[in-house]
Specification:
single chain, about 140 residues, alpha/beta, Rossmann fold, 7-stranded mixed beta sheet, 3 helices
Length: about 140
């Protein structure tokens, strides 16, 4: 997902529904800054502990918040591993809050009729899976 989004040290990667924090930790190891967002306080504790073990906790902020309420306008990359229905419900917020050029990457689930800029197939333990990339366009005035 990070490769498809072409994450660099200049990025701020938000993982909505971060779970154990592995995506943001990997981004921090590339030099990026990150934000882990999860509604489950146990998952935030786990992601913080994993980031500390990896030596990148100082590059990451941890938010125990609902992904539909958290402020995301500071992101340059948003990563998602949610469900199709959640992606589609989240889509208007992404469109409203993210700046043009922000990359949105989703593992397995699309955004309905929002056409991705790029789609790649990756191998997983359960067989091939899709990863989707969208780029927030310039907004019409």
């Amino acid at each position: 997902m990070l490769q498809l989004a072409r994450v660099t040290a200049d990025d701020v990667v938000y993982d909505l529904g971060c779970g154990d924090g592995r995506l943001v930790i990997a981004a921090a190891k590339l030099g990026a800054r990150g934000v882990c967002v999860d509604i489950d306080p146990q998952r935030i504790r786990e992601s913080r502990a994993n980031a500390e073990r990896a030596g990148v906790a100082e590059r990451i902020r941890f938010r125990n918040e609902d992904l539909f309420d958290t402020e995301i306008s500071g992101a340059t990359v948003v990563t998602l591993f949610l469900w199709q229905s959640v992606n589609e419900k989240l889509r208007p917020r992404l469109w409203r809050q993210l700046k043009p050029g922000t990359r949105v990457v989703s593992y397995i689930h699309s955004m309905g009729d929002w056409r991705p800029r790029e789609t790649v197939n990756v191998e997983s333990a359960r067989g091939p899976r899709k990863v989707f990339l969208w780029i927030i366009p310039e907004k019409a005035e």
